[in-house]
């Protein structure tokens, strides 16, 4: 089961434009309240606006918590993620 503020790991990746050895972090969050493509776009837009975020991927789960995977330059503070979800709409981090 995922913790309220997500699970993830640091990965050594490649920067856009061919740079190598750039450190990135990928975290997957369980998010409640997401049911459609509008939800996906709203959450993606808000999370993409957080400093250091380079990619957001969403997998909707009918009747359950969506899986939102965020790739960023550094780990994101849980309260910043929660605030972005709140700004996007009635979306919340799922509790374990």
How would you summarize what this structure contains?
With 96 residues, the protein is of the alpha+beta class. 24% of the residues lie in helices and 39% in strands. The chain has one domain (7-35, 48-93).
Please indicate the percent range of residues in DSSP E strands (runs of 2 or more): 35-45%
- How many distinct domains? 1
DSSP strand tally: 5
In helices, the fraction of residues equals 10-25%
Order of helices and strands: EEHEEHE
Quickly count the helices.
Answer: 2
Q: In this structure, how is the largest beta sheet organized?
A: 5 strands, antiparallel
Bulk shape: globular
Judged by helices, strands and strand pairing, the structural class is alpha+beta
Give the averaged pLDDT, no decimals: 84
Radius of gyration: 13 Å
What is the terminal separation in angstroms? Answer: 6 Å
Give the low-confidence spans.
Answer: 1-5, 9-18
What distinguishing features does this structure have?
alpha+beta, 96 residues, 5 strands, globular, 5-stranded antiparallel beta sheet, 2 helices, disordered N terminus, 24% helix
């Amino acid at each position: 089961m995922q913790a309220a503020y997500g699970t993830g790991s640091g990965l050594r990746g490649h920067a856009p434009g061919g740079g190598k050895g750039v450190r990135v972090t990928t975290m997957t969050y369980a998010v409640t309240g997401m049911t459609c493509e509008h939800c996906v776009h709203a959450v993606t837009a808000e999370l993409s606006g957080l400093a250091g975020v380079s990619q957001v991927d969403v997998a909707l789960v009918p009747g359950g918590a969506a899986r939102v995977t965020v790739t960023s330059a550094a780990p994101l503070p849980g309260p910043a993620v929660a605030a972005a979800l709140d700004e996007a709409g009635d979306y919340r981090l799922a509790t374990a």
